[in-house]
User: Which sequence fits this backbone?
């Protein structure tokens, strides 16, 4: 039990309960999409060229090969945004007349096994009249650059602009302006399970069941039915066990549309399991941005105004449902971060290129804007001859609620408290001493800080503010106590590693007075779970958790009503605990199982005062709430090789009430692992022709267990007033703060050399180049 | 990521293996030992051999023997065999030290010493060992047996003097002097990755001076090799920082560096300078 739940009467919330999900997963008893047998297997033939017109597609004789010509009447994927001069770019399900990136699906080969399908795919010849591709967003913005989509002149798919009134006057009066040109290279979310789909036709009902590795089964069903022009009731979507998503699995994949189309055409079962190479070149990419950020400070290093120019490479198409606004608009909305700055100007553009389509990836832009802003604060600290901690103390927001320069309302946060917590725990003076001693021995240690806010659990108004045609937000939970007294919660969220089956059971257990072992949380099947938006954006514990609590409160009210009838006591004297209702101060009690049975079988006893059965529904659509944290990294940079080793990582974090501390820590640690990849290792690299040079996990480098440093976690649990469970989300914070803290630490380590790294990943090659350039410059001066 | 169709042959004797290899060599037949390099390449369909000659069941290929002068390593000896010293000579300790840098544990239990040499990845640790220590490669075919010196064996990236129908049945490494010193260092971005540069050194100290230095560099050029200039910079010098730096500098200058999309020649020289000096420091620590 965490300290925070003491005295609240909560018995299960706050416990580091073991995850009910794990026994099956660790014993190989999970059910994954690729485990399903199928009659037909699909291999997609993908474009070898980044740009060009399709002249012809030669199919081997006798083979079943589907191309765009076969998919007549199937609509393209055309996500929509009603703001920001958005251009509705359409993505054909299979490339139609043009190819727009290496890896775009051009044809689908159908065969009796994956191996045969791949053999046949090798024989399909695509003749493409190749044209020069645009790979870098800055090249795509140049005058006269080829136009990738006719509807998007200048290759700009959307443009967000913001400027606060009075900006110019404040800017002009500033004492110092500090500028950062940040570059974040492209990444792939790299879930352990790549994409996979299995579509099976049922002759008796004419329905198709699509089992796929998705984060949002209900929306996949709606979207695929729309694109294929079929009744949604003829499609069932199942998300079985899903091996990680991180945002990559919350967008509609054209491949799944092909599978459903094929299952209906062949009246059979059809499956596709993506391989790692396909996942790296043709699933979704993220984080390819240039940000120029300038901060105007007064003479006391107080930040007065920010000016940002965000160029986000969104790839060849727009992802559904979030659209390619997901990165640039997130960058624009949240750039000011945790700092008190009321003047802000921003231009954020999404730029189309001949590269794989961008989609959400854990943190969405915030790892990059936090990196940029935190680099700016460190650079400003150095310009004002201040300690990086001091400049943050001077600028972090202290009074809440706070309305940001973008109009976001920060409910409550503990920026300073978590900073001080981290500073104390890491023992900065001792580190500085050690750093000085190490430098004398030619060893370069550095410390880096990142303070940030993490918007979580936001409902439909937040998505509506972006002008999205699809505005996810709310969640519904249907809670039933069955006649045997066991409890089942059917949820619209779709957890895939987050442990929601455990945490929601903890919430229910406390509310209705049962033990978690009688509770089952059911999700991931559109036939059995209520419509919902799935699991993404650090939302499920807050929103689905809130809906769960609302449903549980209704069940509780009903149980109390039944108990008061059965025990002939006043409702306010009834206590629900340990699976029974008791009359306080007496030995009279009745089990919840008996009450549930009577709610179904003895309804006449309650004289029409209760609805029969024991099923209640809760829906929750909250305004959203902001978690916050301070991350600290200590690194050692090997100046001869440029290698940065993380010696220690520390987090002081506030995500409101922690429902399950073990799961919360797991989320933060997993996020940090991806943040380490972002900071040091992971980079999708295109050659000039648009081919990908990092198409396997030797060249594209997620960190392994051996790259993980010791991590120390501290929680400050300020209960949220904007979330009925008092919990905030924390799924993304780990990866938001880590890159900034790590690269700031590298810069601190390299400070004796006058080197500045504002690019990630900060690879050894880049660090050595910067050091070599500094050496050369020093020689020139000497 | 499924291999193209192939036929797998499983000979039980060396003669049988060589006979099948001679028959299928012309049809892109390949030898399968540990499969840790070949199988992934096949999965990517970068190689589509029509025949695999699986030598895992061939009698007698998994032996390590020593005659007091050389250590002979058979074609099916796994990397993991070297986790503990295989011979009471500094060479045994050297091989144990190096083995722990090869990829990850599961790979070391399957991959083979000779397979690594036949594959000839420029950054392979065992290739560096063979080049630095002047190993002799024993190749057999139905045409007979021949020995190939390391200096003649490596012919570029994944290219060797082995003919298509030849099986690398044995690698012979000379034992080191009982008082020989060795040092090894490699650089990779993640633990277990291919080395971006690696160095192995051996020498003895006679009358306070270094003698008989071997300095090999791998991962920096198309093939690993001994660095004559660096050895010259070391021989006759007292072991210590000055000599080590001079040797490292000589090696960094001597290489014709491999470049790729991330790694410039300049950076490769930086790495060679670092790994050679560190291997030398490692030799005295």
Assistant:
């Amino acid at each position: 039990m965490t300290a925070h739940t003491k005295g609240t009467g909560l018995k299960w919330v706050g416990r580091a309960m073991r995850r009910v999900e794990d026994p099956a997963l660790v014993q190989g008893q999970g059910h994954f999409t690729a485990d399903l047998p199928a009659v037909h297997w699909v291999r997609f033939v993908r474009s070898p060229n980044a740009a060009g017109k399709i002249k012809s597609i030669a199919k081997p004789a006798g083979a079943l090969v589907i191309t765009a010509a076969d998919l007549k009447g199937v609509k393209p994927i055309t996500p929509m945004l009603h703001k920001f001069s958005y251009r509705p770019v359409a993505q054909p399900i299979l490339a139609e007349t043009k190819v727009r990136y290496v890896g775009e699906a051009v044809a689908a080969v159908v065969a009796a096994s994956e191996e045969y399908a791949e053999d046949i795919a090798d024989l399909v010849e695509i003749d493409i009249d190749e044209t020069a591709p645009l790979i870098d967003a800055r090249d795509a913005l140049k005058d006269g650059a080829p136009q990738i989509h006719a509807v998007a002149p200048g290759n700009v798919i959307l443009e967000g602009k913001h400027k606060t009134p009075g900006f110019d006057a404040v800017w002009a009066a500033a004492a110092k302006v500090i500028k950062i040109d940040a570059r974040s290279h492209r990444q792939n979310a790299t879930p352990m399970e790549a994409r996979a789909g299995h579509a099976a036709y049922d002759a008796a009902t004419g329905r198709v069941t699509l089992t796929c590795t998705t984060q949002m089964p209900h929306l996949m069903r709606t979207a695929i039915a729309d694109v294929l022009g079929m009744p949604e009731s003829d499609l069932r979507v199942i998300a079985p066990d899903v091996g990680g998503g991180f945002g990559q699995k919350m967008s509609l994949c054209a491949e799944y549309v092909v599978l459903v189309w094929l299952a209906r055409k062949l009246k059979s079962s059809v499956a596709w399991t993506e391989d790692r190479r396909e996942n790296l070149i043709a699933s979704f990419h993220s984080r390819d941005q240039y940000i120029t950020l300038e901060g105007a400070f007064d003479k006391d290093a107080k930040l007065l105004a920010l000016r940002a120019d965000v160029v986000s490479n969104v790839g060849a198409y727009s992802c559904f449902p979030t659209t390619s606004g997901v990165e640039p608009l997130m960058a624009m909305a949240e750039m000011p971060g945790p700092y008190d700055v009321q003047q802000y100007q921003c231009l954020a553009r999404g730029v189309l290129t001949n590269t794989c389509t961008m989609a959400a990836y854990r943190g969405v832009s915030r790892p990059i804007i936090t990196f940029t802003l935190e680099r700016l604060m460190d650079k400003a600290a150095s310009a004002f001859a201040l300690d990086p901690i001091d400049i943050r103390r001077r600028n972090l927001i202290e009074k809440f609620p706070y309305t940001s320069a973008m109009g976001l309302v920060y409910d409550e946060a503990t920026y300073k408290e978590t900073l001080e917590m981290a500073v104390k725990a890491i023992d900065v003076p001792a580190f500085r001493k050690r750093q000085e001693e190490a430098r004398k021995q030619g060893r370069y240690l550095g410390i880096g800080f990142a303070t940030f806010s993490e918007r979580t659990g936001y409902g439909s108004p937040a998505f509506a503010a972006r002008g999205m045609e699809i505005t996810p937000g709310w969640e519904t939970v249907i809670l039933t106590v069955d006649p045997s007294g066991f409890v089942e919660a059917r949820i619209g969220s779709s957890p895939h590693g987050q442990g929601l089956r455990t945490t929601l059971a903890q919430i229910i257990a406390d509310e209705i007075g049962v033990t978690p072992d009688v509770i089952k949380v059911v999700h991931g099947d559109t036939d059995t779970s209520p419509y919902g938006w799935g699991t993404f954006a650090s939302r499920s514990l807050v929103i689905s958790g809130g809906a769960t609590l609302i449903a549980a409160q209704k069940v509780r009210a009903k149980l109390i009503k039944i108990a008061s009838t059965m025990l002939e006591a006043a409702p306010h004297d009834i206590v629900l605990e340990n699976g029974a209702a008791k009359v306080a101060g007496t030995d009279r009690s009745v089990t919840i199982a008996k009450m549930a049975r009577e709610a179904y079988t003895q309804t006449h006893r309650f004289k029409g005062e209760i609805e029969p059965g024991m099923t209640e529904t809760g829906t929750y659509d909250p305004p959203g709430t902001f978690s916050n944290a301070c991350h600290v990294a200590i690194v050692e940079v090997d100046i001869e090789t440029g290698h940065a080793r993380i010696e220690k990582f520390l987090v002081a974090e506030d995500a409101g009430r922690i429902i399950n501390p073990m799961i919360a820590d797991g989320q933060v640690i997993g996020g940090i692992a991806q943040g380490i990849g972002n900071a040091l290792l992971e980079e999708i690299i295109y050659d000039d022709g648009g081919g990908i040079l990092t198409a396997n996990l030797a060249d594209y480098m997620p960190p392994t267990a051996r790259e993980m440093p010791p991590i120390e976690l501290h929680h400050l649990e300020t209960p949220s007033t904007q979330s009925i469970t008092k919990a905030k989300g924390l799924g993304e914070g780990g990866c938001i703060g880590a890159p900034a803290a790590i690269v700031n630490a590298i810069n601190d380590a390299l400070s004796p050399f006058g080197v500045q790294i504002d690019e990630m990943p900060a690879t050894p090659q880049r660090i050595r180049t910067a050091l070599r350039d500094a050496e050369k410059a020093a020689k020139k001066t000497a | 990521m499924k291999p193209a169709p192939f036929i797998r042959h499983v000979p039980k004797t060396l003669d049988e293996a060589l006979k099948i290899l001679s028959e299928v060599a012309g049809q892109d037949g390949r030898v399968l030992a540990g499969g840790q390099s070949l199988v992934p390449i096949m999965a990517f369909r970068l190689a589509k051999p029509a025949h695999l000659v699986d030598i895992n069941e061939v009698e007698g290929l998994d032996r390590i023997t020593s005659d007091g002068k050389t250590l002979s390593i058979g074609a099916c000896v796994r990397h993991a065999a070297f986790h503990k010293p295989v011979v009471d000579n500094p060479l045994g300790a050297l091989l144990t030290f190096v083995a722990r840098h090869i990829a990850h544990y599961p790979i070391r239990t399957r991959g083979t010493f000779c397979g690594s040499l036949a594959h000839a990845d420029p950054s392979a640790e065992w290739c560096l060992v063979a080049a630095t220590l002047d190993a002799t490669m024993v190749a057999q075919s139905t045409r007979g047996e021949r020995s190939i010196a390391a200096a003649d064996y490596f012919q570029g990236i994944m290219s060797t003097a082995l003919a298509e129908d030849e099986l690398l049945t044995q690698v012979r490494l000379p034992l080191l002097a009982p008082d020989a010193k060795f040092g090894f260092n490699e650089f990779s971005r993640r633990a277990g990755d291919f080395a971006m540069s690696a160095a192995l050194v051996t020498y003895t100290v006679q009358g306070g001076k270094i003698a008989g230095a071997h300095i090999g560099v791998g991962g920096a050029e198309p093939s690993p090799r001994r660095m004559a200039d660096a050895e010259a910079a070391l021989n006759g010098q007292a072991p210590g920082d000055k000599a080590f730096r001079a040797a490292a500098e000589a090696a960094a200058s001597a290489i014709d560096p491999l470049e790729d999309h991330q790694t410039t020649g300049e950076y490769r020289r930086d790495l060679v300078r670092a790994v050679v000096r560190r291997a030398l420091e490692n030799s005295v620590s």
Summary: Chain B has three domains: 7-54, 64-174, 181-284. Residues 209 and 237 of chain B are 5 Å apart (CA to CA).
